[in-house]
Design a protein that fits this description.
CATH architecture of the largest domain: Roll
Helix content: 10-25%
Structural class: alpha+beta
Number of helices: 4
Strand order of the largest sheet: 1-2-3-4-6-7-8-17
CATH topology of the largest domain: Diaminopimelate Epimerase, Chain A, domain 1
Largest sheet: 8 strands, mixed, barrel
InterPro entries: Phenazine_PhzF-like
Order of helices and strands: EEHEEEHEEEEHEEEEEHEEE
Oligomer: single chain
Number of strands: 17
GO molecular function: isomerase activity
Protein name: PhzF family phenazine biosynthesis protein
Number of domains: 2
Active site: 46
């Protein structure tokens, strides 16, 4: 059996930049093992297997080369855009059903998609955990530019603010967050670390970020929508974006795949994050068919 697929680049205004995504169609009956084999064959940070449910909703399974995950940002945007471009979604908005629950998506223009997700985790960290994490990233305590925060909207990341000149010295940490035994609350299928620097630019915060996922065969990711969503929580909680607002992330520069992610976070009357939004453009790269491995 052969299945059709699309390859798109997400969070970029041109092909061959941003984050690559394979969208495999007609795979609703595939086993987990078959999906995993296909994801390893593409070897992108994620491959998705969507099943349209109506003209404004679809279900999707998301796989890295190493494992299935409940949610991710660039697969959400890329999958929604592919389905809409093929007429399988017809409105200006849609609902994605995934392992993390319902995620809203909204379309703007020909190529821009925005996801909206609710915060799930948020806690500050210091002490031994931060010292060990900085050492694993090849950084010094003097590189730190604010409190480390662990937050997420379906996937949890550790957010490490640093001076901009430190970003070029960061290297892939040798272990996943789940291996830090002194922090039992840091448990997540993604185990990601977002190292970022912040500068103010007009009404937005300008952010330069690098994201590492050593536990899921994605040592460094060129554009990470889930991390961008959780970053909004960290920016609010650490006072960088008190009261909510917008921020723009540059990512993937060190990998030669420059990406631009547009974030926005809404807060309640008490100033707590209640909804995170991440938007970006999607570019068509290729279409074809793939032979399905035997179950």
């Amino acid at each position: 059996m052969r299945l059709a697929y699309d390859i798109v680049d997400v969070f970029t205004d041109r092909p061959f930049a941003g984050n690559q995504l394979a969208v495999v169609h007609g795979g609703g009956d595939l086993t987990t093992a078959q999906c995993q084999q296909i994801a390893r064959e593409f070897n992108f940070s994620e491959t998705t297997f969507p099943v349209p449910q109506s003209d404004d909703a679809y279900a999707v399974r998301i796989f890295t080369p190493g494992s299935e995950i409940p949610f991710a940002g660039h697969p959400t945007l890329g999958t929604a855009w592919v389905l809409r471009s093929q007429g399988r979604l017809s409105g200006e908005s849609a609902t994605q059903h995934c392992g993390a629950g319902e995620v809203g998506v909204r379309f703007s223009g020909d190529r821009t998609v925005e996801l909206s997700a609710r915060p799930r985790d948020s806690v500050g960290h210091d002490g031994r955990f931060v010292a060990r994490l900085l050492a694993d990233l090849g950084l010094f305590p003097s590189d730190l530019d604010g409190p480390v925060w662990v937050a997420g909207c379906g996937l949890t990341f550790a957010y490490v603010p640093v001076a901009d000149d430190a970003l070029g010295r960061v290297h892939v940490p040798p272990r996943a967050l789940s291996e830090y035994d002194d922090q039992p609350d840091v448990r997540d299928p993604m185990d990601g670390v977002d190292v970022y620097s912040v500068a103010r630019s007009g009404d937005d915060l300008a952010v330069h970020a690098r994201v590492f996922v050593p536990g899921l065969s994605v040592p460094e990711d060129p554009a990470t929508g889930a991390a961008a969503a959780g970053l909004g929580i960290a920016l609010v909680e650490t006072g960088r974006l008190a009261g909510g607002g917008s921020y723009t992330i540059r990512q993937g520069l060190e990998m030669g795949r420059p990406s631009t992610l547009h974030g926005r976070v809404d807060v309640d009357a008490d100033g707590r994050p209640v909804l995170c939004h991440v938007a970006g453009e999607v570019q068509t790269v290729a279409r074809g068919e793939i032979e399905v491995p035997a179950p």
